């Protein structure tokens, strides 16, 4: 608890002396330590409320609410976690709140979905998938294996030529006589492609426009735009033009445009590529919170080469290899039928020495990725036994990860 208590003490003093400047600090504190998504949401609103406070009385109320929220987060953390800054997979795990689960309505489904490109000969085929409210589906695979093709089909930008698709929540089915009303479907889907389209004009005006064309107007329009701007930390960039933004802030702005009108399905292709580590964590937490929102739940379909991060927030995984589905199911099923264990490690010795040290454990394969080793061992050899053996051999282990039940194992 020492880490969070010290951070809280520092922030408490900073907020009391200058709450206007340290609203961002409260948001960051909530993102790091809050166990409840509602607390992270409240931190953003309080930061926004301070900027909107009309007089000293209103500012005083906001200040008291900031300090009260800070104490609430500390108290919850004391009873709900061992203390210190939790790792990424704990930060973005579903908040353990005593509230009903969001409705798991099927937003999209497909059976034996496929698409053939006649010129290149590439085929995407055999995709069976259901996307539900409150769930995040991660699609992984090397580049050129069909991820973007699948996303464009689900988003209604590309027609499939095999199988059937449906949007049950919107009452649309390709097998119906009238087919799919794509206007109705696309009104509920936000698609953020890997190659972001250029935006013209001021960014704030574009956000207001996106909200307005989806029926959010008047004071509610301004309120929703203000909220998403604060949530994604875009306030300092609203007067800029598109060409003045870095790659990371272009993505944040594209996400803001997609989220300001609360779509039912968010499709986002390679969102983490241009983000630093801190920004990645914020985006991933936001996606988890948005998917599980009780008031505006959504389904999220995401692809990324950042395998560990996608694995941490996804409920189900689809692995595509040369257009074919090699795995499709809950991430808990990864590695259930494996016949060996696989480990990724960075060690101090050379490959020849490592092979000699591991000979007694009967390794099935030892590969070097250019940075680390990937070692496959019999199922009887678990991580603790391998680490103990390496230490007994005098091998210094700088990095170690059991990927036997990880997405990464699918790539080996």
From TrEMBL:
<dbReference type="InterPro" id="IPR003593">
    <property type="entry name" value="AAA+_ATPase"/>
</dbReference>
<dbReference type="GO" id="GO:0016887">
    <property type="term" value="F:ATP hydrolysis activity"/>
</dbReference>
<keyword id="KW-0813">Transport</keyword>
<keyword id="KW-0067">ATP-binding</keyword>
<dbReference type="InterPro" id="IPR027417">
    <property type="entry name" value="P-loop_NTPase"/>
</dbReference>
<dbReference type="Pfam" id="PF00005">
    <property type="entry name" value="ABC_tran"/>
</dbReference>
<keyword id="KW-0547">Nucleotide-binding</keyword>
<protein>
    <submittedName>
        <fullName>ABC-2 type transport system ATP-binding protein</fullName>
    </submittedName>
</protein>
<dbReference type="InterPro" id="IPR050763">
    <property type="entry name" value="ABC_transporter_ATP-binding"/>
</dbReference>
<feature type="domain" description="ABC transporter">
    <location>
        <begin position="108"/>
        <end position="347"/>
    </location>
</feature>
<comment type="similarity">
    <text>Belongs to the ABC transporter superfamily.</text>
</comment>
<dbReference type="InterPro" id="IPR003439">
    <property type="entry name" value="ABC_transporter-like_ATP-bd"/>
</dbReference>
<dbReference type="GO" id="GO:0005524">
    <property type="term" value="F:ATP binding"/>
</dbReference>
<keyword id="KW-0536">Nodulation</keyword>
